[in-house]
Specification:
Elements: H1 12-15, H2 23-41, H3 46-50, H4 52-61, E1 68-71, H5 78-86, H6 121-135, E2 141-146, H7 153-162, E3 169-175, H8 186-193, H9 197-200, H10 205-208, E4 212-218, H11 222-233, E5 238-244, H12 252-256, H13 286-300, E6 304-308, H14 312-315, H15 317-323, E7 328-330, H16 335-347, E8 351-357, H17 358-361, H18 365-372, E9 380-384, H19 401-406, E10 412-414, H20 419-429, E11 437-440, E12 464-467, E13 472-476, H21 480-491, E14 496-499, E15 502-504, H22 508-517, E16 520-528, H23 533-544, E17 551-557, H24 567-574, H25 578-587
Parallel strand pairs: 1-2, 2-3, 3-5, 4-5, 6-7, 6-8, 8-9, 9-11, 10-11, 13-14, 13-16, 16-17
Antiparallel strand pairs: 10-15, 12-14
Helix pairs in contact: 4-11, 6-7, 13-15, 13-20, 16-18, 22-23
This protein binds thiamine diphosphate, 1-deoxy-D-xylulose-5-phosphate and magnesium ion.
Length: about 600
């Protein structure tokens, strides 16, 4: 694909020098550029393809960066990045030391707000608009938000406030009628029918909230978009422009299979096909073991239900939704609601498995404390994508869960080392616990091919002694223990290794025994170093262990935000990889 015009655009000012009639070709070239880049380097595809025309029209009409664009989530902002100074480095997208897959303030003045988690754009753009008012400055403030993201509570809070703010805020609702998975909820149906009050004589929902509503308009029709943005640039006050687009636009397969092509991995840039892979001999992913195990358990226990906030495919809750459509619920991008919904169900004796990515549970922290733990409601949280997740980077790493959950009373915290332990923990959880439990596990594959072993009950708060040495002991929690175990076997190290399994209740007897019988105790976790296993063992040592204490070495994610890149590289950067552990052991 040629980039004759695109190659002349380094910044939006260059784009604005083109005639409107040339924008169609620029759109084709930009689309081709995105397809070529993602086919080779992976990343988010469908969302960016769907907003090519929108992106061009926005930068063509508005005076960016003086006018402020805020992209919600930011997975659709590849076109924006390419038009705002990052075309030549776009091949480093999501790579270690490369550009981020999401808008990021440190990266460009055109990235007005850091994103990754959804539904923040309206609040952020409103904040900017109110700041402009306060400072007496003239800017346009534009939030671009998807149909699934606008259904989240936070977006509604922002609309509610913006409607009485008088702020110069344009919300562009990019309605493609899908999130990652098919859109859900009543708002989805409403949006497919909604029309302007000017047409119907009755206010629609946005007009009722004091927004000047326009649309819906075709988001692939460049002349229409440009005319509408020119009109909008002369207006002020809260406005909402409803734009309809097609996710994956311009690549046949991506339009037809929008779920798969949200982030398809590598594919053929000419045909659009994803190469078939035989994965039958590979160990399964943690998430698939979660999904299949939940179905197995649901067959035995009719009280079980599944809840996911908008991640059925990613979390594999889809397996349960297919097997038991009446007992598994996708509630949309609504983590807070998902948690309290699960709490409500638990009050009635239902056994909810509430599956949330570790990073997204951050949004429902109060609900975990106030609605679940404080009432000792036995909700079973399955926290997927715990630890460092790789190319999505700092916004998405599940780095904090061990620490932020550890300080909550009456919450059991478990982390399986392998998929078989995950099964046993899920089995144990639904037998009837007196408290809620959070089971956290990582993105990707385990190492056990034959995972479908009979269920076993695990005693809460018990660890597993995996090898016994004398001077040095390693206490690990979660899947990072696999690396420890392999290291010990491959290097034939004479050291003790304990898979802690539970951060809370922690196996105090075992920890004290280890502290008293070794010269050096190493803790290792794929979570922040502050407040997780290392802190727990340190506290125990000072409070309860007989003196003299061994030397304690705490390995975990350092107290800084870890960027994006291959997970193995990030583990190395964080000092929690095989090399770092071996070096430490050798130095002792
Ligand atoms: C708080 C939060 N929950 C879940 C996600 C995962 N997520 C990323 S994109 C997405 C779907 C967004 O759909 P929509 O807003 O309609 O945008 P589209 O992809 O259709 O352009 C979801 C659920 C997230 N980024 N943030
Ligand atoms: C943009 C976003 O938040 C999701 O698309 C996320 O990238 C999904 O991550 P997984 O690929 O780990 O499911
Ligand atoms: Mg959408």
């Amino acid at each position: 694909m040629s980039h004759d015009l695109l190659s002349q655009i380094d910044l939006p000012a260059d784009l604005r020098r083109f005639r409107e009639s040339e924008l169609l070709q620029i759109a084709q070239e930009l689309r081709g550029f995105i397809i070529d880049a993602v086919a080779a380097k992976e990343g988010h595809l469908g969302a960016s393809l769907g907003v090519v025309e929108l992106t061009i029209a926005l930068h063509y009409v508005f005076d960016t960066p003086n006018d402020l664009l805020v992209w919600d989530v930011g997975h659709q902002a590849y076109g924006h990045k390419i038009l705002t100074g990052r075309r030549d480095v776009f091949d480093t997208n999501r790579e270690l030391n490369g550009i981020s897959g999401f808008p990021k303030r440190a990266e460009s003045e055109y990235d007005t707000f850091g994103v990754g988690h959804s539904s923040t754009a309206i609040s952020a753009a409103l904040g900017m608009a109110m700041a402009s008012q306060l400072k007496g400055e003239k800017h346009k403030h534009i939030a671009i938000v998807g149909d699934a993201s606008i259904a989240s509570g936070m977006a509604f809070e922002a609309l509610n406030h913006a409607g009485v703010s008088g702020a110069d805020l344009l919300v562009i609702l990019n309605d493609n009628a899908i999130g990652i998975d098919p859109a859900v909820g009543a708002l989805k149906d409403y949006l497919t029918k909604t029309k302007s009050g000017k047409e119907t004589g009755r206010d629609n929902i946005f007009e009722s909230l004091n927004f000047d509503y326009s649309g819906p308009i075709d988001g692939h029709d460049l002349p229409k978009l440009i005319a509408e943005f020119q009109r909008q640039s002369g207006l002020s006050g809260p406005r909402l422009l409803h734009v309809r687009t097609v996710k994956g636009k311009g690549l046949k397969q991506a339009e037809q299979d929008q779920v798969r092509y949200h982030a398809p991995g590598k594919f053929d840039k000419i045909t659009g096909d994803i190469p078939a892979k035989d994965e039958s001999q590979l160990p399964p992913k943690f998430q698939d073991v979660f999904g299949h195990t939940l179905v197995e358990l649901s067959q035995q226990n009719e009280k079980i239900v599944g809840i996911t906030p908008a991640m059925p495919t990613g979390s594999s809750m889809k397996i349960m939704m297919d097997a038991f459509p009446k007992r598994a619920f996708d509630v949309g991008i609504a983590e807070q609601h998902a948690v309290t919904l699960a709490a409500g169900m638990a009050t009635q004796g239902v056994v909810p498995f509430c599956n949330i990515y570790s990073t997204f549970l951050q949004r429902a922290y109060d609900q975990v404390i106030h609605d679940v733990a404080l009432q000792k409601l036995p909700v079973i949280f399955c926290l997927d994508r715990a630890g460092l997740v790789g190319q999505d980077g700092a916004t998405h790493h599940g780095a904090f869960d061990l620490a932020y959950l550890n300080c909550i009373p009456d919450l059991i915290i478990a982390a399986p080392m392998d998929v078989v332990e995950l099964r046993h923990m899920m089995y144990t959880s639904q037998l009837g616990l007196p408290l809620p439990i959070a089971i956290r596990y990582p993105r990707g594959r385990g190492h056990i091919v034959q995972w479908q072993l009979p269920f076993e009950k695990i005693e809460l708060g018990t660890s597993r002694l995996l090898s016994q040495g004398n001077r040095i002991a390693v206490l690990s929690i979660g899947s990072i223990g696999l690396m420890v175990q392999e290291l010990i076997q491959q290097e034939q190290l004479d050291i003790t290794h304990i898979d802690m399994r539970f951060l809370k209740p922690v196996d105090e007897t075992q920890v004290l025994r280890v502290l008293e019988n070794h010269d050096h105790v190493i803790t290792i976790e794929d979570g922040t170093i502050l407040g997780g296993l290392g802190s727990m063992v340190g506290n125990l040592a000072f409070a309860k262990a007989n003196k003299p204490l061994p030397q304690l070495h705490v390995l975990g994610i350092p107290d800084s935000f870890i960027e994006h890149g291959p997970t193995a590289d990030l583990h190395q950067l964080a000092g929690i990889d095989r090399g770092a552990l071996l070096q430490l052991i050798q130095s002792l």
